Amino acid sequence: PTWSMGPKISVDSSTLMNKGLEVIEANELFGVGLDRVEVVVHPQSVVHSMVEFTDGATVAQLSRPDMRLCIGYALAYPDRSRVAFGALDWGSLRRLDFEPPDLEVFPCIRLAYEAGRTGGTAPAWLNAANEVAVAAFLDRELPWLAIPAVIEDVLAGHDGAMPETVDDVVGADEEARRRARTAVLRRAA
After folding, report:
1. What is the pTM of this model?
2. How many CA atoms does the CB half-sphere of 8 hold within 13 Å?
């Protein structure tokens, strides 16, 4: 991370699970097919989102690496916040780099796409397993490299359930957390 975040989101950023969850969000909230959402690594953290249109034009949202602007935009929408969060210094911004993520180094992105494609309660299982694994890492019970392995172990046992009620989703979350705690114990540091 290039700015201060809480412990959980810092770990999610380091594993790129935050990007994987955003892929699922784009699919679920905006109906954008998973095959149309591309993750790129942008080390400067200046471009917060980009949309490519059918004519090939791309529109991007750029700001300082500080999520307060994005949150302020969401809270004030459709208006703009009157609170200034600071503008980019275009004179010192020399470059914007983008590169594809290495899926061998960052398997959480692959796992998120797989959960999104599976659908049903698989995204809930992904999220629950990640939360348990990250908490275990923060509690020094699990090495960082084992976070994706715990998630993969849990997803391998996914029952294919399609939720019909909120209680179904809550139950899926509870089952995935139970399985994740077992997986953490097997892989504990």
Report:
1. 0.87
2. 7
